[in-house]
Amino acid sequence: MTTLPPQPLSPLDGRYRDAVAGLAEHLSEAGLNRARVEVEVEWLITLTDRSLFGTTPLADADKQRLRALYEDFGQDEIDWLAAKEAVTRHDVKAVEYVVRDRLSALGLDAVAELTHFACTSEDINSASYALTVQRAVTGVWLPKLREVVARLRGLAVEHADAPMLSRTHGQPATPSTMGKELAVFAWRLERVVAQIEDGEYLAKFSGATGTWSAHLAAEPSVDWQALSKGFIEGLGIGFNPLTTQIESHDWQVELYDRARHAGGILHNLATDAWTYISLGFFAQIPVAGATGSSTMPHKINPIRFENAEANLEISGGLFATLAATLVTSRMQRDLTDSTTQRNIGVAFGHSLLALDNLLRGLDTISLSRDVLLADLDANWEVLAEAIQTVVRGEIAAGNSSITDPYALLKDLTRGHRVGAEQLAEFVQGLDISDAAKQRLLALTPASYTGVAEQLARG
């Protein structure tokens, strides 16, 4: 048997590459290295702008050419770093060397020793992860999540007045509308989205154990805490002033827990949509040329929702692992976070793939209102709740001598199908006021939806 040519091991880099490519721009190894170069370059420029250690600010043209190292970061830089890391066996050290190499090419060797000045690798890494995760979340993942929420909101309004039989514990229950049920998911997701949007992306920049010891040894007169804070905030991320060797990752734990929470809600949406399709509430719109089943030509399988369900389970598991692992570091530093963080892109990749499938699934379903109405018409017994509640009010008002309205309705409806005529006859015989009888006789399962329509419209 011949050996296959090199193949991607992960489906995210193979079958589903196009769907998640936007994340790779930031959360791949190359994306991380580009951010590392950015942090190293900007720190050097910050130090020279302050004229520290006898330097003078770089000329604008030199700054521009130096920044081009990360702004135009491409295959040449990726290959250079891979070759250098093979020798250094240290990824951040390889990044330092590529910056030094560019300085030499620009004739700026005089400031080369300020490359990576007073930094531990985690100063560079924490800033780089904050930048890459922030850019991936705000630029790629959150927009797709917002698309799903917007689509749900649109469907909620579209179907706000479409009455449907609810099923609590899988059994017929007080009717709602399809729009209101979809609005529930939209509202739940909007809360989590708001929490994610308010989240922080933090970095530290305080040296080997978070004390600025080397900085002060080199130049005691500088307010290194203020300088570091200004530098990090100038990158567009938040500053953590109190850390060990590593930034404590609590912001990441918060983010991944919230992403997992959003995924749980989306998983609930996927399984409910699948169930509504199986009940015939939603019809699936055929896609030209698509095969639903390899052997049964009539079928249109709800594969978008099934695919979303599976990918949300994978991403949820990874987000949970990220959060559980990153919250702890032994004393001042261990390396468990290093390998763990390299899977951030995998977690968001499976989540993004799920979002893509959910959006496609929601775009290819059509509500079968006739099925909803037929289901309602077959379950008049759900009005038992309304009847016994009205009777309670009549008893309280002194308009009825009935002693146990709940038991009365239970005897009539529990375990039985009750039709419209039987229910009307029952209402007519109740010891309640005529006004109450008329309100009950006017009810149908399709009209017994309370303020569901208003809730759906927001």
From TrEMBL:
- Pathway annotation from the record: Purine metabolism; AMP biosynthesis via de novo pathway; AMP from IMP: step 2/2; Purine metabolism; IMP biosynthesis via de novo pathway; 5-amino-1-(5-phospho-D-ribosyl)imidazole-4-carboxamide from 5-amino-1-(5-phospho-D-ribosyl)imidazole-4-carboxylate: step 2/2
Looking up SUPFAM superfamilies in the UniProt record yields: L-aspartase-like
Task: Give its E.C. classification number.
Answer: 4.3.2.2
**Superkingdom, natural source:** Bacteria
Q: Name one Pfam family in it.
A: ASL_C
Q: Where is the Fumarate lyase N-terminal domain?
A: 14-308
One Gene Ontology molecular-function label:
lyase activity
| EC class of the enzyme, as a word | lyase
* Protein name as it appears in the record: Adenylosuccinate lyase
What gene is behind this protein? purB
